[in-house]
Amino acid sequence: MSKWNTATMHASLRQACVAGETYKYPVYAVMKDTSFFGSRYKQKMGFVALSDYRRLLISEYYQLTGTPVRMGALGFDDLVSAKVNKNLFGQYTFNLVFIVNGKKMNYQFSAAKKVYGTDLNEQEQNLMGLVEYFEKCGHNLRY
Q: What is the C-alpha to C-alpha distance for residues 15 and 63, in angstroms, rounded to an integer?
C-alpha cells in the first residue's frame, strides 16, 4: 500500500488547521509550479481541502522523495479568480488567483477521480464537492 493514504492525508491537513478549524472535501492532488522558471520535474503532490474558516488548506510534498515542502492555508478573502477545467483524461485542473501582500499569486493543482494504489476511497465524491464549490465560487467573484 502507498504511503499516500487516508491516515497521512488527515494527519497532514490537521497540521495545516488552526485550533477549532475543521475541513471538508479532502483530496489528493498534484500541485503545479506556476513560476516563470517552473518545471514539470519540480511538481509537488499532496492534499487539499476546504476549511470551515473560508480557507484552502494545503499540504505539499516533493514528488520524488515524499519530504514535506509546506503546509498552510490560503484565505478566500484574498481570492480574485477561480476556474475549474476538465481535461481529456477526466482530471480536473483548478486555477486559483489570490492577492497576497498586494501581489497576484497563482495557485494551480489538478486532481483525478481515482487514485490507484491507495485507500482514498472518497476521492471522487470529495473531488466533485470541490469542483462544485469552486465553480459556484468562481461565478460570484468580482474580477
A: 20
Long-range contacts of 26-29 (CB under 8 A, 24+ apart): 26/126, 27/111, 27/120, 27/123, 27/126, 27/127, 27/130, 28/4, 28/111, 28/115, 28/118, 28/120, 28/123, 29/109, 29/110, 29/111
Q: What is the pLDDT of residues 52-105, one digit of tens each?
A: 999 999 999 887 777 788 888 998 888 888 899 998 888 999 999 998 888 998
- Rounded to whole angstroms, how far apart are CA atoms 82 and 101? 19
Backbone φ/ψ region at 114: left (φ over 0), alpha (ψ -120 to 50), beta: beta
Query: 14 with 7: CB under 8 angstroms?
Result: no
Full-model pTM: 0.86
